[in-house]
Amino acid sequence: MLLIKIGGGTSLNLSGIANDIAALVEPTVIVHGANGIRNQLAEQLGIKIQTVTSVSGTSSVLSDESVVELAMMAYAGLANKRLVALLQQRGVNALGLSGLDGQVVTARRNPGIRVRSGTKKILLRDQSGRADDVNVDLLNLLIENGYTPVLTMPLIDQNGFAVNSENDDVIAAIHRRMIASKIVFLIEEAGLLEDPRDPSSVLPRLTLRDVADRELEAQGRMARKLRSIRKMLEATPTAITIADGRSAHPLSDALEGKGTVIQ
C-alpha cells in the first residue's frame, strides 16, 4: 500500500497529482490538508486564527469551535470534494471521508497546550487531539472493493466530538496499523532544505539519525514534522519521500527519488 500526504498549500499542482495517482496500480490511501483554503475562508468570514507556541517550542493552531467548523468547511468540504472530483474525472473511484465518518480516524483529546504568558505558564484548552487509531476494517473494505480513500480533518475524539489534529500524526497512525510500503509527502518545497532561505539546498538522502539531529535544530511546524517522521520510522521502518507538490508530475517525480528520501 502506498500512503500519500498532500499538503494544504494553494500552490500545489492537484491536477498533476491526480494524473499521477490515476497511473498507479497499487492500493493507495490519501491524506490531505487544506490550510490555504481554511485561511482564505477565515478571512472571508472574519474569523481570526490564532497560532500559539508551547513551552516546548512547538507551534500549532488554537482550535476553538470556530476553527473546527472552518475545518469542516475547508478540509472536509471544499478541499476534499475538489480532490475527489479531480480523481473521479481520471477514473479513480475516490471516496472522501473526514475522520468523523465511520470513525475512520479517531483521536485522543489533548489535555491542553502549555504556553508562556509573561513570566507564567498557563494551560490553554481547545478542541484538538492527536490521531490515535484508524478503522482498518473500513479502509480495507474500501480498498478491496476498488475505492481510493481520501481522508482529512476533522477527526473524532473518544466522546464523539470533532477535533482538529495534525495530518502527520494521521499518516503515522495509518502506517502503524496498515504498514505502508512507501510514504510520500507532497509539499510546497523541493524537499527538505539545508537552508530554509535557499530553495535549491535540497537534502537528497537522510538517515533516521540525520532526521533526529535535524529535529533538534528545527523550529515550529518543521520540528513537529521531523519528530513525527522520526517516531514513525523508529516504530515501523519504511521508505519516506518528501517531494515537490508543485511540479508537473509531483507523485511520479517522488516515486523516482526526487526530493528528500529518508530510509
Short description:
Helix content is 37%, strand content 26%.
Describe what this molecule looks like in 3D.
The chain is of the alpha/beta class and 263 residues long. It has a single domain (2-262), classed as 3-Layer(aba) Sandwich (Carbamate kinase), CATH 3.40.1160.10. The protein has helices spanning 14-22, 35-45, 65-89, 136-144, 167-178, 208-217, 220-235, 250-255; strands at residues 2-6, 28-32, 51-53, 59-61, 94-98, 105-109, 113-117, 120-124, 129-134, 148-152, 155-156, 162-163, 182-187, 205-206, 239-244, 260-262. It is globular and about 55 Å long.
Topology, please?
Layout: E1 2-6, H1 14-22, E2 28-32, H2 35-45, E3 51-53, E4 59-61, H3 65-89, E5 94-98, E6 105-109, E7 113-117, E8 120-124, E9 129-134, H4 136-144, E10 148-152, E11 155-156, E12 162-163, H5 167-178, E13 182-187, E14 205-206, H6 208-217, H7 220-235, E15 239-244, H8 250-255, E16 260-262
Parallel strand pairs: 1-2, 1-13, 2-10, 5-10, 13-15, 14-16
Antiparallel strand pairs: 3-4, 6-9, 7-8, 11-12, 15-16
Low-confidence stretches: none
Strands in their spatial order, largest beta sheet: 5-10-2-1-13-15-16-14
Radius of gyration: 18 Å
Structural class by sheet pairing and helices: alpha/beta
Strand content: 25-35%
Order of helices and strands: EHEHEEHEEEEEHEEEHEEHHEHE
Question: If classified by CATH, what would the architecture be?
Answer: 3-Layer(aba) Sandwich
Which class in CATH terms? Alpha Beta
Terminus-to-terminus distance: 17 Å
Q: How many structural domains? A: 1
Shape: globular
